[in-house]
Amino acid sequence: MKSTTDSGTRVMEATVDGVHAAMREGRLTARQLVQRYLDRIAAYDRNGPGIYSVLQLNPHALAEADQLDAQAATAPSVPLAPLHGIPVLVKDNIECAGMETTAGARCLQGNLAVEDAFIVRRLREAGAIVLAKTNLHELASGGETVSTLGGQTRNPYDLTRTPGGSSGGTAAGIAANFGLLGIGTDGVNSIRSPASANNLVGLRPTMGLVSRSGLIPCGLTQDTIGPITRTVTDAALLLDIIAGYDPADPVTGEAASHTRPSYTEGLHPDALKGARIGVLRSFFGDGLEHRAVNAVMQAALATIRARGAELVQIDEAIHPDALLADTLVHLYEMKGDLDAYLADAPSDVSVRSMEDIIASASVHPSVAGTLENAMVLAGNETEYRERLQRQQALRERVLGLMAVHSLDALAFPHQRRLVVPVGEAQAERNGVLASATGFPAIVIPAGFSEPDADAAHGVPVGLELFGRPFSEAVLLRLAFAAEHAVGARRPPLTAPALT
């Protein structure tokens, strides 16, 4: 397909800084940038390889770009806003004014947002353009990114595999260069899983750093919102905009004293020198099915060590599968939090409770059992409180572990084996440590498995760095240096530059 503007090469792997440099030099306008991404979506999302990452386009995106271009033309000496003209892909469980918020569910069609979610308002105030709402695992309740409205999103690196989940639509779209920045949500693994599976950067912030108002919830003790991007620098720039106090989300009360003037400060390729990083051995697999991931991780960690980091082997018996079984609380909270959200939904939405959703018999089969389980668990107050206590004990244990070993971060693969083929349930992910504690974690590209007939580049593998509460600045510095040392980011062959 021929682009309506040019060959499209300028949007391939574009960054905020690179786009803004082109705009200041008069080589690019916001309209041209938006149109090039729209061209790529038209060529590759429902057509071509059929990635199926986009649920709905913003019909006003080009008009918004024109307004930004006009503003820049009338004041050429005024610096560009931090995200001036930057097209953003937003997961479709976050409200964007004038667009439906469906969470991929047919029963939530008609849920037209009157106002922007807090973080979307921040994005627009910074000059960003919401380009599209992206597919997700329906109601953000699974790890494979399949929904009744969007179908199965496919991994652009291996179309036979899932893109992870639940924010897989955002991740697949950013990986395929359908937008410049992405927004996902994370209740257990849901930002970092698709970042790992799509050769991207995904940041789950400390609970309370980023507002969740305007989010269709799964369980607000664990739900948060964060960046999915192609580079660490762009993740830091995005965090600059979305972090901060929101009166509508009381948990952000701590954010005011912890946010930084800019998370891009201190991003330097030499930041690994002198860092102490604990390698959490219990988060690695030891079977044949784990060999591909372990080989990539060993090479990435060796490179990080060569750049000056001290790797400390941690043999603490913290087992991710046990944490999944004993500490998570989202299913205990899901009914109450979702019912509260639906109570204020527009009149065009036919469901007002989880009971209504189940009775509609319209949700994807992979979600139906989750909802029924959540209905049962909603009344189990004793077990819910016990799990909250285990979460607190885990926080104390992990902080003690990091203190004893004087660690700046913990490191491990986000997923112990490769992201699964379409039709299988996601397995052996390690994101539970951050979701159960509420501490921050970032995934960066670690490399690829050996190429095969399905994946000419191999399948992406992500390295996760986990830190203390509100240590995003530390994690971003380490991640930036590791990103530059490992150099694993590359676009998928399925969505090349348009010619």
Automatic annotation (TrEMBL):
The residue ranges of the Amidase domain are 33-476
Single Gene Ontology MF annotation: glutaminyl-tRNA synthase (glutamine-hydrolyzing) activity
- Family matches, as Pfam families: Amidase (PF01425)
The UniProt keyword set, sorted, is: Ligase
**The organism sits in which domain of life?**
Bacteria
According to the UniProt entry, what is the EC number of this protein? 6.3.5.7
Q: Which PANTHER family match?
A: AMIDASE, GLUTAMYL-TRNA(GLN) AMIDOTRANSFERASE SUBUNIT A
Name of protein: Glutamyl-tRNA(Gln) amidotransferase subunit A
